[in-house]
Amino acid sequence: MSAHTNKPHEIVERALELSRADGCVVIADEHSSANLRWAGNALTTNGVTRGRTLTVIATVDGKEGTASGVVSRSAVTADDLESLVRAAEAAARGAGPAEDAQPLVTGVPQAPDFTDAPAETSSAVFADFAPALGEAFARARAGGRELYGFAHHELVSTYVGTSAGLRLRHDQPNGTLEVNAKSPDRTRSAWAGRSTRDFKDVDPAALDTELARRLGWAERRIELPAGRYETLLPPTAVADLLIYQLWSSAARDAAEGRTVFSRPGGGTRIGEKLSRLPLTLRSDPHEPGLETSPFVIAHASGDDASVFDNGLPLQATDWIGDGELKHLTSTRHSAALTGLPVTPSIGNLILDGGSDRSLEDMVAGTERGLLLTCLWYIREVDPATLLLTGLTRDGVYLVENGEVTGEVNNFRFNESPVDLLGRASEAGRSEKTLPREWSDWFTRTAMPPLRVPDFNMSSVSQGV
Question: Exposed end of the chain (fewer CB within 10 Å): N or C?
Answer without folding.
Answer: N
